[in-house]
Amino acid sequence: MKNDKQKRHTRLKLTLFFSGIVFLIILIILAVIFGVVALLIHTGTLELGDNMPDIKRNILIAALISLFLGFVTSFSTGSFSISPFNIVFSAMDSLASGNYSVRLKFKSVFGKTKIARDFEKSFNSMASELQKTEMLRSDFVNNFSHEFKTPIVSIAGFAKLLKHGDLTPEEQKEYIDIIEEESLRLSHMATNVLSLTKIENQVILTDINTFNLSEQIRNSVLLLQNKWEKKNVELILDFDEYNVNANEEMLKQVWINLVDNAVKFTPENGKVEIDIRKQGNLITVSVINTGKEIPEEKLPLIFNKFYQGDESHTGEGNGIGLAIVKHVVNLHHGEIKVKSQNGTTCFKLILPIGT
Prior knowledge:
By secondary structure, the chain is of the alpha+beta class. It is built from 8 helices and 7 strands.
């Protein structure tokens, strides 16, 4: 309630400020007009004759009427001028309070001008993006909380069983393997969140060095060996040796996320192929997997932060991996494309080799 009063008070002051400016302009114009008339009378250029007293009285009355009309006009003009600002302020207040469904629409004559239409378009586009981001963020928080809680519960449960003892060596090994797997899963999620935060805040690429890209990709594939062996996925690595000049640690995250993503969406006994080609000063890395295609309408969304193609959230993942890939590629002034058709999905990453 107090904030509403403050807002009304602020807008009233703004209205009076604009009205005061208009009124001051009118006063200056009237002062110039009456000053010129007075000067003409004083120099005798304008002869009034015997009607001098009546004319002076009429001039005074006209001045008073002009001042009154000027005040009314300035206040009306000020109110009219501030009206679009009030609409914008109200819309911005709604956005600030979390109402991302608000949309801007100017009325009256001002709403028909080009600047008003352009401003409406920009504001509504911003509000729409904020609404989408908030929805994705909300989904992410709910899903991430679930994803984070599940391995913790598993670790605690199997640790309790191990604590009781009275288990066969096979059971002990199985429970320890599960605890290790779930711990690695937690570590991977935490690492992705921290990596995304770090990369998002970085605008200049640092720590650049020359390294063997082919070897880095092979090592990334080996790190995920348990995942693709468990699904009996066939890995096809068809490339020669290539060196690049880039941030080694960042690109390592790119290959891990792309290969992990490919294995995750490849069915049992499917295939994942990685191909590297060089064209001029560019390196093209393609990661191709068999399996269910990504719907055409979802392709532009998959690199958005928090976005998950599996809206049921039953699969692994938290919508961060591909966002990291996109940010790293942008920092390297590269490009990433995705095509999904005929039972295969291909992520094609194009990077400058560097010097």
